[in-house]
């Protein structure tokens, strides 16, 4: 039986999901959050889908065996695209919320506009994204923009380095002056917003799914009468043997927008 005081687990391939955790804490400050980043296996976004599915199911199984959980937020677009259905099927007792690229927000705000979706290769090639794309591609022109290497830079703490800016220039260069908005479809990318804005210019609106995912999590907990109003607590865990990953994770938690 799930209890209000149980944890809300937040899972990502690494430090990226902390961009979602920040919204979750803002919207539900009285909850106990357990963040797990699988940095030992990051990046997920360039792996075969089967591998991402297996890594996700293993991580979720481990979390459930070690902590009492009332909900799981898959704060990783890649893991959601590859494995959310399998996670739900394997753990029907658990509230499971997955993040997806914020295309609806983009289509609502820019009818007739041009929208880039910056995401991992896995997210952009999965059927889940195609289904999402076809819901909105009559209203907006959508460009799929993979950004190989960007997750690795964020994992290394290089959220605003010359290397990061150079990679973004290569990836976004062909779209300069052609976009109204860019959906950050990977939870690592909001941490590189400063560099992304510098490359794209201030007129291009950046959107991500963090706030909507936190809203949906709150709605589901409220519906199940599982919202807690305690002192609030955040525990951060990481699979990497490098102790620096925990320091980097805490740095991301307090990074200014
Ligand atoms: N943060 C994950 C996402 O939202 C992906 C990172 C990775 O490639 O591991 O897609």
**Number of helical elements:** 11
What coarse outline follows from CA principal-axis ratios? Answer: globular
Tell me, rounded to a whole number, the average pLDDT.
97
Beta-strand fraction estimate:
15-25%
Q: How would you describe this protein?
A:
It is a single chain. Helices cover 44% and strands 19% of the residues. The protein has 257 residues and is an alpha/beta fold. It has a five-stranded parallel β-sheet with strand order 4-3-1-2-9, with helices on both faces. A four-stranded parallel β-sheet has the order 6-5-7-8. Strand 7, helix 9 (193-200) and strand 8 (205-208) form a beta-alpha-beta unit. Helix 1 packs across helix 10 (210-223), helix 2 (49-66) crosses helix 3 and helix 8 packs across helix 9 (193-200). The chain is globular, with a radius of gyration of 17 Å. The termini are far apart. Residues 12-14, 16, 42-45, 76-78, 120, 123, 151, 186-188 line the site of D-glutamic acid.
Give short descriptive properties of this protein.
binds D-glutamic acid; 11 helices; 257 residues; alpha/beta
Summarize the helices and strands and which ones pair or pack:
Elements: E1 7-12, H1 18-27, E2 32-37, H2 49-66, E3 69-74, H3 77-90, E4 95-98, H4 103-109, E5 114-119, H5 121-125, H6 127-136, E6 141-146, H7 150-155, H8 162-172, E7 181-184, H9 193-200, E8 205-208, H10 210-223, E9 233-238, H11 244-254
The structure holds D-glutamic acid.
Quickly describe the structure.
With 257 residues, the protein is α/β, with parallel strands linked by helices. It has helices at 18-27, 49-66, 77-90, 103-109, 121-125, 127-136, 150-155, 162-172, 193-200, 210-223, 244-254, and strands at residues 7-12, 32-37, 69-74, 95-98, 114-119, 141-146, 181-184, 205-208, 233-238. It is 44% helix and 19% strand.
């Amino acid at each position: 039986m799930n209890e209000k005081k149980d944890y809300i687990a937040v899972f990502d391939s690494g430090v990226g999901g902390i961009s979602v955790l920040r919204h979750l804490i803002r919207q539900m400050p009285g909850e106990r959050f357990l963040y797990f980043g699988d940095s030992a296996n990051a990046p997920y976004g360039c792996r075969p889908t089967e591998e991402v599915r297996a890594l996700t199911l293993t991580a979720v199984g481990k979390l459930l065996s070690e902590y009492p959980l009332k909900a799981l937020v898959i704060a990783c677009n890649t893991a959601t695209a590859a494995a959310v259905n399998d996670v739900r099927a394997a753990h029907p007792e658990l509230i499971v919320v997955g993040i997806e690229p914020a295309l609806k927000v983009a289509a609502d705000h820019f009818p007739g506009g041009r929208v880039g979706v910056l995401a991992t290769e896995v997210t952009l090639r999965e059927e889940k994204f195609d289904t999402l794309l076809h819901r909105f591609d009559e209203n907006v022109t959508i460009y799929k923009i993979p950004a190989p290497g960007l997750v690795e830079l964020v994992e290394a703490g290089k959220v605003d380095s010359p290397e990061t800016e150079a990679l973004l220039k290569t990836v976004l260069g062909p779209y300069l002056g052609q976009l109204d908005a860019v959906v950050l479809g990977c939870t690592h990318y909001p941490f590189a917003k400063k560099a992304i804005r510098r490359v794209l210019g201030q007129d291009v609106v950046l959107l991500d799914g963090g706030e909507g995912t936190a809203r949906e999590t709150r709605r589901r907990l409220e519906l199940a009468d599982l919202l807690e109003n305690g002192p609030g607590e955040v525990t951060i865990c990481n699979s990497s043997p490098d102790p620096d990953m925990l320091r980097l994770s805490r740095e991301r938690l307090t990074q200014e927008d």
